[in-house]
Amino acid sequence: MIAFVSGRVAAIGLTSAVLEVGGVGLELQCTPNTLAALSTGGAATLPTSMVVREDSLTLFGFADEDEKQMFELVQTASGVGPKLAQAMLAVMSPESIRRAVSTDDVKTLTAVPGIGLKGAQRIILELRDRIGAPGSTVTSTAATTVTGSGWQTQVHGGLVGLGWSGKEADKAVAAVTPEADQMETPDVARLLRLALQTLSRAL
């Protein structure tokens, strides 16, 4: 997976930016706030999260690591995919999301397009214990509570990006952990395929 992209900003659009890296233009989906901090022709380094689907690979770019970690964490809630996660960050900062979840602020969450009352309540219920208190960052809580290691984070994120719920992804990651333990270096692509097979058999 691609953890960050560093290069010259070749173009800035309404919802994405293109960074030239080694002669290749990489398009990153970004929030308006992230795009506003970029300038065409300037240098930029953006943390990224790759969403893997059957017919596409999409890179999302972020202003900082906290925003990236929040993007990945909120997707572990049932019904939250990458587009909705990005919409949340377009409307709210990571700190605002932490505050809304920790204080049961349904009204603030429903201000995000695509999140209704029941969706907001579900997000609060599923993320309250792992999103961290206001004033903290999600790096430690997301990495240790949701997954625990590098390959697990990547496989979990890939499954959520493919449309599985956070809970389904958790079960699939747990199911392939014995296989990963036997690998000297975890093969993320193979583990993702095995996890998908596990989920398909459960249908």
CATH superfamily of the largest domain: 5' to 3' exonuclease, C-terminal subdomain
Major sheet strand order: 1-2-3-5-4
* Annotation field: number of helices: 10
Name of the top-level CATH class of the largest domain = Mainly Alpha
| Number of extended strands | 5
Helix percentage range = 40-55%
Q: Which structural category fits the helices and strands?
A: alpha+beta
Instruction: Using the 3D structure, state the CATH architecture of the largest domain.
Output: Orthogonal Bundle
- Radius of gyration from the alpha-carbon trace, in angstroms: 17 Å
Q: How many structurally independent domains? A: 3
Q: How is the quaternary structure best described? A: single chain
- Give start-end ranges of low-pLDDT stretches: 138-148
Query: What is the averaged pLDDT score?
Result: 85
Shape from CA axes?
globular
* Head-to-tail CA distance between termini: 28 Å
